[in-house]
Amino acid sequence: MTTEQLQANAIDEHVDAVTHNQLAKHATQVHKFGGSSLATTQCINRVLDIIRQNCQLNDVVVVSANGDTTDNLFALYQLAKEQRDTALEEQDPRPLEQALNALKQQQELLINDLLNANNARQLTHALKADIEQLTTWLSGNLAAHHNDILAYGELWSARLLSALLNEKVCPSNSIDSRDFLVIDNETHYRVDSAKSAAQLRQRKQFGKLAVITGYICRDEQGHTCTLGRNGSDYSATIVASLVRASNVTLWTDVDGIYSADPRIVPNARKLHRLPNGVAKELGRLGNPVLHAKTLLPLINQTTDHHTHLHVASSFDSEVIGTEIGKFGQIAKQELSVTYLNDLLIAQSECFLGEYCAKACETFSPICSNDKQGFMVINQSQQKALSQWLASHDTEVTFKPVGIIATVGHKVAERGDIKARFKRSLKSTKPLHLVNSDNAHSVIAVLTEPCTTELLNNVHHDMTKDARHIGLVVAGLGNIGQRFLELLPAQLNRVYALENTHLVGLLSSSKALINNDGLDVSQAMTLFEQEAQGYDHEQLLSWLSHHPYDELIVVDITPSEEFSLLYEQFFTQGIHVIGANKWAASSPTAHFNHLKKLSAEHNSLWLGNTTVGAGLPINFAIDDLRQSGDEINQIAGIFSGTLSWLFETYDGSTSFSSLMLDALSQGITEPDPREDLSGRDVQRKLLILARKAGFELSLDDIACQNLVPEPLQGLSTQAFLEQAAALDDFFAQKLQEANEQNACIRYVARLQYDDIAEAKLTAKVSLEVLPATDAFANLTPCDNIFLINSRWYQENPLIIRGPGAGRDVTAGGLHSDLVTICQQLANKQNQVKIKGIN
Ligand SMILES: NC(=O)C1=CN([C@@H]2O[C@H](COP(=O)(O)OP(=O)(O)OC[C@H]3O[C@@H](n4cnc5c(N)ncnc54)[C@H](O)[C@@H]3O)[C@@H](O)[C@H]2O)C=CC1
Ligand SMILES: N[C@@H](CC=O)C(=O)O
Questions:
Q1: Closest by alpha carbon to 821, among 506, 549, 615?
Q2: I need a surface site. Which of 68, 532, 640, 738 has the fewest CB within 10 A?
Q3: pLDDT tens digits for 735-783?
Q4: Does the active-site annotation cover 684?
């Protein structure tokens, strides 16, 4: 084994010990807080809350300097330099003294505001010593201490946060990253991982939350170095790779990565999950949050260890941010648009053919083309490139350009996306359209700077139909399975379902959830093979972090308990399609509360199958009311089961065997007593009454129970075994009706009369009807709904058709799904980000 391998093994052992610390609930995580997140007392208190809620002792916190401290230190350096360059007689020491004083006061303010008197005294003392050291450097060998001066920002920030944590949250120690992090130089920033990890291990104290300075490190000679622009993010991912963390969260002032810069494109969509390669490309092409070098340490090529990266807002820590890592197909479909201005296009024969590769190796251009002989570079590279070309004795021309690019997984290989991008640029006439080497972007080189208008237009064209909708199906019985059988064909043929993905399947005890999507054609098989036990807390926790623009739960359970989750679904903005009747027929206060919540959180709630299965009765009532009509009577046969039973029952076959037949056809409720008791019809009448604008509850609807008392308290199984006990009652009722040349039907009736004393009457009961009655001659299983209103007074509106059964109910649920997806497609979210807007 080489020394390097031995060192690497030693690190691995340490890392395993740290990551598998028995006191830790999860693997080590790194949390990095940016300058704006630590700018004021209020911000720092928010950071304390985030740490309280998200950290454990073996985690690592990496900090930037508070607010604009680094800029102020840099300004201090410049002032000192100017002073040095000024003739002695013209020197004025006051501006430097004032700036130094202001910096000191800023720190003192934070210290005194946040810490108790004792701790504040200690930190103020340390600060005083630092200011003395700063003063010495500013008046001494300035250039040699440039980085040492800048380093104070992170040093003070880490010291303060660590002291505060010790005082208020948990044991903590602050670590100066220069004591462990070693790089080769400030050009390549190559980290000596073995040495850095070993030194970090010595500094990290067991049982204390480490607060580490970002941005700064040392070179081999021991000089202070900085990690350049966005260096603290880079520090965080380096530290994560050293401790093999499972996750790094960059807590910043934006709440994620958007499909375009949300400060310029108000309709930008948040990208919840970004594949690593795409994130790197975005960083390379000007994304304001991601920087290409930050992402480098996330994948350890030797160990293949992947650290996930989260971008989240410290101003709104509850909001789901963006996760960067390794994902499946759905995340790979995401597209974004980015731009860069102030670039140069360099045209030279030297860039033709193989020389182009050499130039690219040296200059890492934004894009290049070895057939047309050009490279697009940053303006700052012009001089170096000219010199490089001069040594090759070739001519070069430079012209100012901008770029706009569409970025997404392998977009350069997707003909449809490229064609769309080209179309969106047609008014602009780009100079060139170039595929990036990794194929994750297509770059248009523009003769003029990219404007806000162009960025918004191209973004609109590229992302207008890119809302990803996750679908969770709860209840995999009779109707649930049919719903899933129909799903693959629906997803293929209905345009509105284009970006809808089945991501969850739930039975009462098991769940199968996959953010990368489930294969719809094998849904039930996958469920049987892979589903795991779950409880509602786990379900809600997953739902609160789902990575979709929208999430729809289709409730095809008969469960009251499941319907009680709607409250949390709506609070989280999740949409619900219910075949389950419990919520829509729950007590008035609860129902009104749910309606209010769903409206407040823009959650859509559809339940057309709760009454009449796939029949459009809910739509019809909604439509009448929306168009100003007033309904005063609703009546009919609302139960498919009771319709089938009473239309079929003629005494030749016993009532109980017909009931068992209806159960096996899938038209009854899972427990047929729900139908026979009249409760199912009672619920349906309540649901329609509420739709029609009446405020009432189940108790306001008189209900005749057809289940004999001795059968009422039995288990479902025992009831089915003793079902023959129903037969005498129904045989007698049938005989009595036949004697009057009539028939028996279970009817729902609601009447509103604003003159009568009891204005509203509602009941569901067994009625003896003349054989000629409209309710007496239905196809078995049909429902009939009769509505009287101001517009339908003499001649009622009638809707009739199959009101229960697998196909019509599953079909009705699909109709609800398409309706919701169509409505969501038109929903445009305007981005509102705390810290920006
Ligand atoms: N059968 C029909 O024609 C119609 C039925 N419906 C409604 O559809 C729903 C389902 O009916 P069926 O499929 O016939 O019933 P089913 O009994 O065949 O299936 C229900 C499924 O839901 C599951 N389940 C129960 N509690 C659950 C929970 N808490 N979480 C997740 N899953 C749970 C059960 O394990 C079962 O697999 C019922 O609410 C029913 O009222 C609505 C319109 C028509
Ligand atoms: N059991 C119900 C099913 C639909 O809601 C019925 O028979 O109507």
A1: 549
A2: 532
A3: 999 999 999 999 999 999 987 777 999 999 999 999 999 999 999 999 9
A4: yes
| Domain residue limits, the chain | 3-253, 332-463, 469-613+817-825, 617-803
Tens-place pLDDT, residues 148-185: 999 999 999 999 999 999 999 999 999 999 999 999 98
Per-residue model confidence as pLDDT tens digits over 255-300: 899 999 988 998 899 999 999 999 999 999 988 888 888 998 988 7
Q: Which two tokens stand for residue 287?
A: 């994304």
* HSE of 780, CA atoms in CB hemisphere, 13 A: 14
Which listed residue (684, 733, 763, 832) is catalytic? 684
CATH 3.30.360.10 fits 617-803, yes or no: yes
Burial of 7 (0-12, 13-18, 19+ CB in 10 A): middle
CATH 3.60.110.10 fits 3-253, yes or no: no
Average pLDDT over residues 67-84: 93
Listed residue (516, 270, 268, 281) closest to 410, CA to CA: 281
For residue 642, which atom of ligand 2 is closest to its CA? Answer: 7
Give the Å distance between the CA of 486 and the centre of ligand 2.
20
| Kind plus residue range of the DSSP H or E element containing 404 | strand 397-407
Q: Which fold has domain 469-613+817-825?
A: Rossmann fold (3.40.50)
**ipTM score of complex:** 0.99
Helix pair 523-530, 478-493: axis angle to 10 deg: 130
Note the pTM of the prediction, 2 decimals.
0.79
Q: Is 477 in the pocket of ligand 1 (CB under 6 A)?
A: yes
Phi, psi of 552 (to 5 degrees): -120, 130
CA of 807, nearest ligand number: 1
Q: Annotate 532-557 with b (16+ C-beta within 10 A) or e (fewer).
A: eebeeeebeebbeebbbbbbbbbbbb
